[in-house]
Design goal:
elongated, 2 domains, single chain, 4-stranded antiparallel sheet, alpha+beta
Length: about 190
């Protein structure tokens, strides 16, 4: 992905998955992504929702994203039925649960598509493969500090600027040699 997915695209993607899995109730009048789509630059958000009887008729399910760190709330979509009985409320509640489950699975399967903020730092194993963990730092200064700490234990470390997708691999042996050169230069001064 060359740019962040928008709230509209995410809603439509999950809606399509629910259709493919036949999890859209027959009573649904419509499902629409919210207007004014916003880029999703991080997977660090929670889904919020409101399932309620409408002011005039039916039941609606409003879904939004909440980013507690930024105290932001961004509406992503709405589902509506004209039915108002208890069975309809249960079906809409099930739709909410299915939406949350599918959204969670989709985002976790595509984490890189939702990582556009900060700088990631990963250690590599002896085969040059990433370990199943890493760090996301707020800025390059923190990332380079974390890189230096990891190079004390691991042969190679990757530093990746998430907004540009640029990566640099650092090798323990080169870092040790560079640090030794700096120490030698400082001791001769």
């Amino acid at each position: 992905m060359t740019k962040p997915m928008t709230t509209e695209k995410l809603f439509n993607k999950i809606y399509d998955i629910l259709k493919e899995k036949d999890k859209i109730p027959d009573i649904l009048e419509y499902g629409h992504a919210a207007g004014s789509p916003v880029p999703i630059t991080t997977y660090e958000y929670e889904l919020g929702s409101k399932l309620a009887y409408g002011g005039n008729e039916g039941i609606y399910l409003d879904i939004w994203m909440e980013r507690s760190r930024h105290n932001e709330k961004q509406r992503i979509g709405i589902f509506k039925t004209l039915y108002e009985n208890s069975d309809a409320m249960h079906m809409m509640a099930r739709l909410l649960a299915d939406f949350i489950i599918e959204e969670h699975a989709y985002v976790n399967a595509h984490l890189d598509d939702f990582t556009w903020e900060g700088v990631d730092v990963y250690a590599l194993n002896q085969d040059g493969q990433r370990y199943g963990w890493g760090y996301t730092c707020c800025d390059m200064e923190d990332a380079l500090y974390r890189k230096n700490e990891l190079l004390k234990k691991y042969q190679q470390v990757i530093v990746r600027e998430n907004a540009t997708r640029r990566e640099k691999i650092f090798n323990q042996s080169k870092e040790v040699l560079n640090n030794e050169k700096i120490r030698l230069q400082n001791s001769t001064i």
